[in-house]
Amino acid sequence: MPQLEEQSASSVQDFLPLNGTDYVEFYVGNAKQAAHFYRSALGMKLTAYRGPETGVRGEASYLLEQNKIRFVLTTPLTPDHPISAHLLKHGDGVHDVALWVDDAEAAYRETTQRGATGVRPPETLRDEQGEVRISAIATYGETIHSFVERKNYRGVFLPGFVAVDKPDTVSRPVGLKHIDHMVGNVGWNQMNRWVDFYRDVMGFRLFKHFDDKDISTEYSALMSKVMSNGNERVKFPINEPAEGKRKSQIEEYLEYYQGPGVQHIAMATDDIIDTVGRLQNQGIEFLRVPHTYYENLLKRVGPIDEPLAKLDELGILVDRDDEGYMLQIFTKPVEDRPTLFFEVIQRKGSRSFGKGNFKALFEAIEREQELRGNL
């Protein structure tokens, strides 16, 4: 497949200005227990709650934060709740990648006029702390993008949420700063459809492109295109399967998630060695590459600031492009279904996604697939 040229930021009119990711909402089977995991293992802090005690009868939601990262964990309280059907089909996973905007009504109007399916017309949520305007459109699978306008709100998060004021004795922060990017898996021959969606409907541009020659092993392959908004605060790589001898990681995801969805969330840190060490001590399991990966690492990527022995010990990967280098590591799936996982990333100039690590990383994923009997 030929390499496509990435578009320059100036070549795209930004009719949908985004300030960044507002929050990511997960639908989970037991939000109270899931919140404990995200607090004790990932270091998120419980800051707000919404549920029966706050006047919401059908569901409960927990807001977890670490620096600029906001996760909302929502669970249904009855089997006939619409979220229950979502969980039965998909298991725990990301439902809403919410985007922070200055004008939720304009965001909805611009995107729906360009072909988006609206799932939440603009509405105003109010409480004594002010008001939030919110709207939402559909994207791949059952994932949605909410547009959140909060310039007239002084509260902790959204109307309906009550701040949790007591100290969070469970949370052990690990230095995660913000969401770097979020990756979506789509079905066979669907990548370009969703690339077109983000370009035509949301004004994104093609940031990077990797084909099946870039992302392949002896057994499996995938293709990926990275879409970015105008100011590059929001980046969405889109993956699809490619032909291989055996089942790819994307096919395994689609099988277990029962359709397209968010595959992983990459979170940035300023000190990946410290962050990964803390996460490992708190029970997070990471994919490992063979120790031979590190034997010629400095010849491949040039001089780096971090001690090679420590990177080897923790399993952190390194890659360099013409702007600098980056360090990254990937968790194993955090659900029993092999679907959602997380990436920890530290950028030292590089704006890419670790192309030089793809083969070693995907061989590590295949070893896990083989253990599950799914390769």
Q: What's the CATH H-level homologous superfamily of the largest domain?
A: 2,3-Dihydroxybiphenyl 1,2-Dioxygenase, domain 1
Rounded Rg? 20 Å
- CATH architecture assignment name of the largest domain: Roll
Largest β sheet strand count, sense and barrel closure: 9 strands, mixed
Query: The CATH topology of the largest domain is what?
Result: 2,3-Dihydroxybiphenyl 1,2-Dioxygenase, domain 1
Unreliable parts: 1-12
Structural class: alpha+beta
Strand order of the largest sheet: 6-7-8-5-1-4-3-2-9
What proportion of the residues is helical, as a percent range? 10-25%
- The CATH first-level class of the largest domain comes to Alpha Beta
Task: Provide the number of structural domains.
Answer: 2
Bin the strand percentage: 25-35%
The H-and-E topology, N to C, reads as: EHEEEHEHEEEEEHEEEHEHHHEEEH
Spell out the blueprint of helices and strands:
Elements: E1 20-27, H1 31-40, E2 45-50, E3 59-66, E4 69-76, H2 82-90, E5 93-100, H3 104-113, E6 118-127, E7 130-138, E8 144-149, E9 162-163, E10 176-185, H4 191-200, E11 205-210, E12 221-228, E13 235-242, H5 249-257, E14 261-269, H6 272-281, H7 297-301, H8 308-314, E15 317-321, E16 324-330, E17 341-348, H9 358-372
Parallel strand pairs: 1-4, 5-8, 10-13, 14-17
Antiparallel strand pairs: 1-5, 2-3, 2-9, 3-4, 6-7, 7-8, 10-14, 11-12, 12-13, 15-16, 16-17
